[in-house]
Each structure stands twice: as structure tokens, then as C-alpha cells.
Protein 1
Amino acid sequence: MAYQFPALTSEQKKELSEIAQRIVAHGKGILAADESVGTMGNRLQRIKVENTEENRRQFREILFTVDTSINQSIGGVILFHETLYQKDSQGKLFRNILKEKGIVVGIKLDQGAAPLAGTNKETTIQGLDGLSQRCAQYKRDGADFGKWRAVLRIDNQCPSSLAIQENANALARYASICQQNGLVPIVEPEVIPDGDHDLEHCQYVTEKVLAAVYKALNDHHVYLEGTLLKPNMVTAGHACTKKYTPEQVAMATVTALHRTVPAAVPGICFLSGGMSEEDATLNLNAINLCPLPKPWKLSFSYGRALQASALAAWGGKAANKKATQEAFMKRAVANCQAAQGQYVHTGSSGTASTQSLFTASYTY
Amino acid sequence: MPHSFPALSAEQKKELSDIALRIVAPGKGILAADESVGSMAKRLSQIGVENTEENRRLYRQVLFSADDRVKKCIGGVIFFHETLYQKDDNGVPFVRTIQDKGIVVGIKVDKGVVPLAGTDGETTTQGLDGLSERCAQYKKDGADFAKWRCVLKISERTPSALAILENANVLARYASICQQNGIVPIVEPEILPDGDHDLKRCQYVTEKVLAAVYKALSDHHVYLEGTLLKPNMVTPGHACPIKYSPEEIAMATVTALRRTVPPAVPGVTFLSGGQSEEEASLNLNAINRCPLPRPWALTFSYGRALQASALNAWRGQQDNAGAATEEFIKRAEVNGLAAQGKYEGSGEDGGAAARSLYIANHAY
């Protein structure tokens, strides 16, 4: 460990750090619209729409052509590969529509789970092969950040040290490669909510996982100021009989983060992991009101929790475009307020917004 | 790693965290008066005083008889074992004098460095045997915090991966044992300033060392809110031809800490490592004026940089005791201001204050 061989020049560092800060400035968060084809299938099936490329395109078009004021709540959008190259009905590329609104374009980079032999059904994530070339191409094609989701679960003997180590290492390799290609890596070590464990147990596991992730990032010479973290909030398992308030979730979450995430990380954008739209917003708000020191921005990177009402409003019909956009804008604004601790719960919420979006053993 | 077996109860955690916060309360730092018999020999020989137990007692009396002015700038004093059981001329135990000023008593618990075979002159630190029993006794005898110093050095091939790993591990074991006995561990991974390396190299090494330390603390289930860190500032090696300003040192130091020290750590108490009294104050001041966000207290744990002028004024003569005490109070107040970024500089160059206190290869 004698010498430093700088991984990045100062110009590269500056570019990465500016991108990261732009995404989470002023309470903005991320729309995770990077559902794979299979996962979009699950979403569309719930509203009885066929999973075709055209339908997927139409739904994303409705979201991305919403009024420009969306750029006050949404700083970045994560796209799936197919979507990066799709156009609206006038032939305009989605990525250009987003960029013109001042929204940073991101791309999902991982290629799904692979089993870890000798473990209790644990996995690592693939996608490192040829990743540098893919990143370079995506950068040319308009992306400025990447996302890679590692999955850990709480169960008998899980997460094992192998699973933690291996996933942390893969995340660090991915992050290093992204930065070499001018992409800000969003680092996502999701501890899924499946199980009946309580809040304290999730906190303990989350702390161990995040400590391993940041050690791996350091070992791989990743420039923290040019990254974002996308963790789970600390919550009880879905089958846990004990109920916790948003304040309890917030305290457990911020405690875990402040024991493990260095202040150099500019932003933490939580995943919603099956929480209802309203819970995801209430929890984020409580997190931002938590009295512990919070040197990073605490924001959102929501998929289901930003889109559930919009999907329900759309139902596959072009005529519902306005209602769909309103539903989406409403959640975006609510979450932007929550990211500043300013969300006021209105009391009444639509069915879709409180419905739990939990799908057991969610792999995508 | 599935289950958590809590290392500490909620009451134990609260006690540790309260002690740590008291030590690093705004404007306060630590007097490191824990020089071993061997180190005191070097100090006393510089002023022509014989190294006897009585002289060591008389000298510590000079420091501890400081009046109430030190209450606002000294939060803790680190004692050597011998001193913990010594009394002043009136038979009042030093421990009681310090506690009566509302200052927390600490104790050095390591037993010095030992070589790591197969390395280029690197060391680890011993002292773990029977440490729990010793801590329990020290707690009964008035100590509420402890200190353990590990040493790393920068050269062509050092610090090696083994040296970093081993020292981080031993620090984590020590910290864990302290907390079990109600004692706040000060974790000191000192990277010596010996060598001709530049500022960047020291920053790089410091980041690697601190990342390893915090991973080890996490692995050993140490409660970060009940610890303090005592690192080196990031500085160039003593033989480096390039000169850097306090602002450059501050920026390199705070950057390194932001990338590695979790916000849960309540305070960072820098060692002075051979800097002159004035340099140590100016650098600490610049650190507290650094524009980067700093979620922990940034203060001092100085030995030489608080005592050099006092020692020089005393020169073993009881008639000089009052003047010597004044010199100490002066440095303590200056550093109390520096810990808040409020020190305006001395203007004139005090003799002992500016003289570099560097002793090559400071082992203790």
C-alpha cells in the first residue's frame, strides 16, 4: 500500500461530484424508471395491460412528457437500456426530453442475480464483463450516472459474510469502472424486507452491510464525493408482527447511516422496496426531521412509490394521460417536500397510494 | 452474521456517549500528560532536570495546579499509570484535582510497540492481556476514558497491508474491552511525519489507514458514539522540501476525515506529533475554518504542543512553577479558541512556541 496511483484526474473528480450534487440539489430525488422487461411485465399485469415494447414506451412517454416543473422535484431518472433509445410519438429521444428539462439521465448497469453456491440461496450480481465499454457507450449516448442493485436478505445464517463481502466487492468494482467513464455510480446494497425480523435486527444487518460496502469502496479507490448511495430504509421485516412509527424507522435508519456512511458522500437516495407511496413519503419526511446529524442529502430513488398511482390512473389508455401525469407529479412533489422535512400529510389518500407494494422476494 | 448479540446495554451506551461529548464540548480539548517514564526522560533531559518520580510529580503538579481558566478549554487529561496515583504537595490526589475542575480523567493503557516480523521495521502495539481487569480497576480509580497509540510510518513500502490490518485490529480489540468497562476509548492510529513524502501521499495513506480502522471497529461491534479518534493531521513528511500553508493542511485533513470517519464519532482530537506549539494551534484553527462540512468536533489532544513552553519556563525550579503554569494556561486557551476557529494568531514568535518539537522516529 505504498503508493497512490491516482484513479481520477481533478477534472474527472470535479465532473463526477457536480453531477452527483445536481441530482440531489434542493430536495430533488430520483425516479427509478429502470424496470427490466420482466419487471414491467409484473407492473402491467396488475393493471391488465399487455407487456409489449410499445406499451412500455407509451407509459414512459407519459411520465417523461409531464410539465417541465417536474424538474424541481426530480433531479435524475434511471432508465433501462431499451428506454434510453426510445422516442416519444414525435420521434424525439426520451433522453433528450429529460435533459432539456435539466434532469440527469441514468442507466441501469447490472445484469441480474447469480447464485452463490454453498449459501442459503444467497446471490451476487453479474454485469462486470465489458462494463467499461458499455459505460463509455452510455456516456456518449447521454447517461451521466449508473445504477447497480445488489441484494441481501435476512434469514437463517443470512446475510452470510460471503454474501456481504462478495456483493460489496462487486459494487466497488462497478463503481470504479463507472467513474473511469465519467458516470456517477449509484451504489445500491438492498437488504430486502422479506422476513419476520424486527427493526433492531434490520438496523444491525444494515450497519454491517454498509460498513463492508464503504470499506470495499475505499479499497477500490472509489471517489466518494462522486457517488450516491441507494440503501433500504431500516424497517422491520414484512412478516414482523410489531408495528413501528415513521419516527422509529427514521431514527433506526439515520443511526445506521451515521455509523457507516462517510460525510463525503453527497447524497443518500432511499429505495422504496415495496412500501406504499404514502409510507415511502412519510418515512422520508421523518428521516429528514430526525434530530441526529445528517451531513448528506437524504432523498429518494423511488420506482413503485412514485408510479403506482400513475399506473393505476393510466390503465393502458391514452385518454388517461393527464390523470396519469397529475398522479405522478403529485407523488414527485410530495417526496421533494419530504426530502426537506416539509411534507404535510393531507389525510385522505387514494387506494393506490396506501396499498402496500410488497412483492415477496422481489428480484426486479 | 445473522444475529446481533448486543455488546452494550442502552444505559452503558448512554454513559459512554455522555463522557465522550463532555470531553469534546465546544471549545474544549485534551491535555495529553501521559508521557511514559522513558518519554519523560527525554523531556526532562532537554531542560537539564533529573528523571525521578518526584520530579515527574512536581512537573505534573505545575500543569494540574492551573486555575479555573482551564475549565473552559480542557475537557480531558490523559494520565500515565504512575500519575493516576500521585498527589500534590497538600496530599490531594491529582485525579481529584482534575475531576473537581469538571475535567474528565483518562488513562494510557497500551504497553508500547513491538516489531512485526517480516516487515520493514513496522510495529504493532501490545497491552491486551488482562486489559479488561485493568480497565475495571482504572474505572474504580477515577478514569472515564483511555488512550491507546498505534504507530504507522510512510516509506517506499510502508505502511504494509499487514501493518494496517494488525494495528486496526488491535485498536478495535482495545476499544471493545474499554467499552465493556465503562471507559471511552480514544483510538489513536498515528502515521508518523518522518520522511520526505508530500501532503498528497500522507492524505492517501491516512485515508487507507482510517478506512481500515473503522471497518475493524465495525467488525468488533464497537459503539462509535462512545469513542473518540486521535489521528495525525495530514501533513507533509518532515523532510519534504515543499512547504504547505495551514489552509492546505486543513483541507487535506478534513477531506481525509470526511471520506473515512462516520458522523457518529462525536469528536476528532488531533495529536500534535512534533509540530511546534504555534503550528499546532494555527493548523487546528485552519481546520475549524475549513469550508467543507464537518459533522464531528475537531479539537486537540496535545502533549508537547501544550507543554513545551511550560516545561521550558519551569526548568525544574519551584520558583518558576507559577510562571510555568501560566504558559500552560496560555496554550490551553489558544487551542480552545483554535478548536472553534477563533484564534487570530500570536503575532510575535514565542521562542519555545515556534521551535519545531520534532524528534525523529518518535516511539514514546
Note: The interface with chain B takes residues 1-4, 154-161, 164, 200-201, 204-205, 207-208, 211-212, 214-215, 218-219, 224-225, 255, 258-264, 293-295 of chain A (CB under 8 Å).
Protein 2
Amino acid sequence: MGRRLLLPHTRRLMLFLRPMRYSASATATATAGSLRDPLHVCVVGSGPAGFYTAEKMLKGREGVRVDIIDRLPTPFGLVRSGVAPDHPETKIVVNQFSRVAANPRCSFFGNVTLGSDLSLSELRKTYDVVVLAYGAESDRSFGIPGEDLRGIHSAREFVWWYNGHPDMCNLAPDLTNTDSAVVLGQGNVALDVARILLRCTTELASTDIADYALDALRSSTIRKVYLVGRRGPVQAACTAKELREILGLKNVNVYIKEADLATSPADKEEMRNSRIKRRVYELLSKAATVHQENNDNDRKELHFVFFRKPTKFLPSEDGSTVGAMELEKTLLKDDGATGKQVAVGTGEFEELKCGIVLKSIGYKSLPIEGLSFDKYRGVVPNLRGRVLSSESETATVEPGLYVVGWLKRGPTGIVATNLHCAEETVDSILEDDRKGLFTDPSGPKRQGRRGLLEILEQKNARYVPFDGWEKIDTKEKADGELKNKPREKITRWNELLEAAREG
Amino acid sequence: MSMLEAAHENDIELEGACEGSLACSTCHVIVMDVKDYNKLEDPTDEENDMLDLAFGLTETSRLGCQVIAKPELDGVRLALPAATRNFAVDGFVPKPH
């Protein structure tokens, strides 16, 4: 019925899609092949990259068995520990991931750490396919003087802290020694931390924010937050939804200098090519013209500081913590290679007093033993998800080893970016499978899940199965109900493991 | 009923990570006939914020969860953006090998 129109970039008309029924006996789609041998897949990391990969592998071929391991007892990666407490709609995707985990051909193994409970080479001997999806658990740093002063944290640490990640529950940032907080960076994570510092705690009290963080924020003396970027409004990395939200916070005056909004021809070209930049710039322009009400004690301040790069962190008077930052004014120059505008120092400096600094300049992945790693980009060298032996041009493909998510692309994008990233990696895996790269008649048959269980038993490693997470989930929700919160997060390792085993 | 709900009722694979809460762009659809696109109410700021991030955005793109069935839309055809090998997300341009 009707003509099939071909549009660029379209796959096919929705009406002509072959329906896919998601069930325990899901049939393979277009892949050819008769009766399939089981394909044992291990995904390391249970965030969006890991779960989208598991889902697509299960749909992509008959006989796939996927085990997802994670070093935490709780699954879902940054959906649980990164997405801000006041963004609950972004967490709804865990429903979809839970359905994947419920598939009989999929198993979750929490509290299992690659590198200590088992090595990469053990994993590759146990599974036909290993997909590394363990993200980026470290931070970029400035490498400037004073960076190790107390009171300076990475945004990742701060976000893990207010989200109750068991590695950061003892961070104890001091929110009472100052009225000024500086956030370095202007991406969505920077906006998240600024917003959590500024939002009325009565609003935060009904979210899943960690209880100790809510307490700390209730006694916070921070009244001014500075969002500092090296470049200008056109280069700010945040997106419209988050910007609109922070500009609309009640009881917050927003300060943006009109002079910072001047645009060069290069800026205009950047905006011409990007709908996101155009809309972000419009929001910032409108906010700059809003007349600020008199600042009474109830109103907090959000300052957008552009064209400033940090050169030093300076100690407070008693020397114990950070007391101020030295910033250098910048100009934008064409980088001469890619047409990108970079910030260049002008030799003019100024000081900004502050008692806490949150660095939000990017996450970084961690290398592991036996895995090639591009130290400069902070990713595993790969070709469409196939791990390469190095970043050089003569690198070879590592058989059966793949990468997905931030470990593959770098720490950018949103939850949905991993959907397309996983599609690409899974396409590579299925292509390699069709070419017979995983069948080696001379080699030993890989044991998959059975092999993993043997290794874990030998090491006495007590893993948390998905229903162990479900016990944690049930307890958190029940405790949350008593306080009008969607959940009260369990934030200590021993308590998480205990809750996983109860009942 | 939204197009997202209609897709799921008919076992069509349209992603819906946030289940219609305007917090993602995974249900992005392309309205194939501009006449049908013009019959729809303009997207809100919130929908536009999500469309900003949609993969393969076009001039007649909408979020499937925000397009509600009505008699005037009878026969509307919606396409799903393709996942190409050299995908471009967030302005990323793949470097030539």
C-alpha cells in the first residue's frame, strides 16, 4: 500500500518494518545461518553502553548468551550515579534495561571487578566475545599550581557524592566555609553541579539525592556560583534544556555580561552550522538582558564567566584550603588546522575569591592491564568498536575484543548516544561472527557463564545477581516512601552487599 | 494515542527510553510528507530541546511521543532515521583514515 519513498538518511518506512517480538525465543533478523552454536558474550560495565549492547546482541543472532559484569553491586552505571537527582525522567530508561536483564539468556554479575576478580585474558579465554563498556571513571586535570589544595574536587566526585556512589560517600565537601563556589567548565555536568548547589533544598528533599548530601546542602553557606569557561557563549558545551532549567531557577539572579555576547564572523559560522549552539546563544542573550531584582538575602547568584582560563589555585589565609583562583583573560583564535576556535591567553590576569572549586572539564577512562590505550585521547584504540592493538597505523585487530560507549568514543554525548554507538559495535561483532572469526575448531570451546562461575568460585568472589539488585531496589524504595522520596539510596559498600543478600 | 504508543502496540521497533516524558530523543521520527508535518502543532520549546539532540535530524522531524493520532493524520507515513556506519552525533565529524 502506497509507494516506498526513499529519503536520505532513512532506513525504511515504519509501516513496512518487520515486527520484532522481544521474547525468550527471539528469532534472528536478517542474519543468515542455520542452527546456531551458542555465542558466549561478556559485557564489562552495566551502564547504557553495556545494556544497549546486550539488548542488540540478544536480538541480533540466535543462541547468544550475554553476561554483564559490573564492579558495583548495583547496575546502570551513570544512570544511577551520574544523572542528577532532579532529573528523574532521564532515569526511566532503567525499565528497558531491567527487561534486558530479565531475559533468560542474559545474566547480571554485580560486585565483579575486571582487573582484580578476574583478568582480561581470563575473560577472553572464557567468552567468544568480550565487550568493554566500563566508561570513564577518572578526570582530566589542569596541571596548574595549587590543584591539590583542599576544597578542589572534580565534578565527577561531587556528582558521585550527591548521588550516593559508595566510592564517594565519605567525600564530605565543605559547603560552609564560603559564600562563593566556582565551577570550571560550562557543559551539562557543570550546569548540574551548579544547579544542585543553587536549588532550594525543599525541592531537592523529594528527590533520590543521598541523605548526607541533602543535609550538607541544607547547611550550605554558598550563595554565589560562578560558571567559568575558557571560551565564549557560542562555544559553551551545555544544551538548551539544561540551560533553560538553570536560568529559570526560582530565587536565583543570573548575571551575564552583554560584552561577552559579541560574536565574530567565526562565531556566526559556528552557529550557522549548529542548531544547538544557536538556541543556547539565544537563551544566554535573553538572560543577559533581564533586569536583576535587588539582591536580598533570599536570592542566590549565578554568574556566567566567559573568556577566562584558570592559571593558579591560591590558598586561603590560613593555608588550609583553596581561597581564590587566578584567571587569565582569553581571546579566540583559529587553531589553524580544523577551523576550531581555541582560547589563547592575553597576559591579563584577575583573581576570583572562592572556597570551593568543582572542575568539570571532562572525564577520562582508566587503562587496564593487557589492553591497548590511547593516553592522549583517553580511549581504547578501535575501528568501529573492534579493539586495535595500538593507535599506530600498523595496528592489528584484537580478535574477539570490542569496545563501546565512552571507552570507545570519549566521555561525550547523552544516554541515547550509546544507542547508536552500541549499534555500530554490535554490527561489527555480527559481521565478524558471520565471517566465522569466533569459531576455532582447533581451540578449546569457550565455557561462557559456566567458566565465569568457576573462576569466581575459585577466587571466592561473591557476585550480586540481578535479583540481588532487586532486593536493594525494593529496600531503597521502601525507605524512600517514608520520606516522600522515590528512594533512599544505600550508599555504603557493606550495606549494599548486605541488602543484596537479605531475605 | 501517540505514534510511540502506536508503534509499540504494533510491535514496531521505535525506541522510547524515557517512555514519553520529553527527556530523550530516541523516538525521533521523520514525517515524510511536508503537508502532514504542517498539520501538526508546532513543537514546544521542550520538544525542540530534545530534537536538538536527535540523531539524523531533518526539517520535518518530530518526537514520536508528541505526535498524537487524529483523523486529519490518516495515512501519515513516518520514517526512522538510519544508523549509518559513519554516524554524526553532536557535531562529531569522523576523521578520514
Note: The first strand of chain B starts at residue 28 and ends at 31.
